[in-house]
Design brief:
With about 120 residues, the chain is mainly beta. It has one helix at about 10-15; strands spanning about 25-30, 30-40, 50-60, 60-65, 70-75, 75-80, 85-100.
Length: about 120
């Protein structure tokens, strides 16, 4: 067996130019690890089938919930529970690692102009 590759998240992020378009960098079982750059406000949405994990690599972001807002700084993470409506927002560009099942649509139950193609690897 050959050794598994080392993945440098910051090198992968350097390949990302657009906001709100997650790119897959690794797979573990049925889960994808995706890097994404956030800036501005996303759409209110929920994922009826799964939890969603946000890990802030650079910058800061807010995850808005109907009941309040959580601020995430570099090095912090949150797991958004399955079915909970939320909206990510970043005043300045923020880099995030998402962990979610393969096939998860970034806009969940709110498809539209910010829906990114699924299955894009970098």
């Amino acid at each position: 067996m050959s050794l598994p590759p080392v993945i440098n998240l910051f090198s992968k992020l350097a390949l990302v130019d657009d906001h709100w378009a997650p790119k897959i960098v690794a797979r573990m079982n049925t889960y994808h690890f995706k890097v994404v750059k956030l800036q501005g406000a996303f759409v209110w949405h929920r994922h009826a089938e799964t939890d969603e994990t946000f890990i802030v690599l650079e910058g800061s972001t807010r995850i808005e919930f109907r009941s309040g807002t959580v601020e995430l700084l570099q090095g912090e993470m949150i797991v958004v529970p399955q079915g909970v409506e939320h909206r990510p927002m970043a005043e300045a560009e923020c880099s995030v690692l998402l962990v979610e099942p393969s096939g998860t649509v970034n806009t969940g139950d709110a498809p539209g102009g910010l829906t990114a193609p699924d299955g894009v690897w970098i």
